[in-house]
Amino acid sequence: LTSRLTAGFEIEFERTAVTSAGDRQGEVEVEQGWVEYRINRYFNPRLGVVLVPFGKFNLEHFDPMRDLTARPIAMRRVVPTTWGEAGAGFTGDLSLGELLKSGGDWMLDMNYQFYLINGLTDAFSDTGMRGARGAFGTDNNNNLAAVGRLGIVPFANQEIGLSMYYGDYDENDGSLSGFDVDWDFILGPLELIGEYAFFNPENGGLQNGSSTLRVPDALRGGYIQANYHFWFDVLNETFLGRDFSSPTMTLVLRYGEARIEDDADAGTGDNDEERWTVGINYRPVEAMVFKFEYQFNDTNNEALERGGNDGFLASVSAVF
């Protein structure tokens, strides 16, 4: 808006369709919409609907940025990406390397986001957190949740993120605490990324009068992914490379798992699902990507995403 006022908006048109009877289906959602007032590089208030800074995947979940079609299991069932909340807080960054006037490759930059938000509700289960995302205009308790992420950049193109979450999930002071660690290391054409998240509901199976809230004892999971970016000069004069300045291909290997500990369902234990994914994608330009991948899935007890089904996925994603 000006050099000191920034606004960010993301509006999603999801599953829009028209039925044979002429009825329109789908939904339009505001995933984020906020205004930031820049005081200085260290401290900047931000208010509105924000992407919750619990792990880096939720902050950078946009399909054109990602090298695989499907999101990791844990980034849907443990961290309910896409996760936006109404709230207010602060962002900023700091370069300790500049302050200490260090030399060499060491830089030690830091960035942070911290918010007070409505927070997750009690609508989670032993298949995950997705139902616990609250509405922007209402809350199921009279308490705010606190969430924040600290990003640490010791060297160029290398970052480690630490995130924390704490808040009540119901009106009976049932609390929910969470921790997340993420990493992104780039070494030439090789990129190693990943994330691990953990949520601990206070006293799984809380008593609420005569009924019992069937909440899991814990929700945990993560993924690790290797990307190798490459290009063959022989392709420059083919349809893949002709008239493009810097096309690229990427080989991808990912392992992910999510475990939702038992919520006292009769006859079942922990629900655990793991997935291996191998894929390749092609970017004629950075803003457009064609993705192809194959999944190998395995599950114990209730299925979280694919169960034991293996399969092929393909997609095209672009930003403009």
What does this structure look like?
There is one protein chain. The protein has 320 residues and is mainly β. It contains 3 helices and 16 strands. The chain has helices at 56-59, 74-77, 96-100; strands at 5-18, 24-37, 44-51, 84-95, 109-117, 145-155, 158-168, 175-187, 190-201, 207-208, 211-212, 219-230, 248-260, 271-285, 288-300, 311-318. The strands form 2 sheets. Strands 1-2-3-4-5-6-7-8-9-12-13-14-15-16 form a 14-stranded antiparallel beta sheet. A two-stranded antiparallel ribbon has the order 10-11. A hairpin with a 5-residue loop joins strand 1 and strand 2. It is globular and about 65 Å long. The model is unreliable at 204-211 (pLDDT under 50).
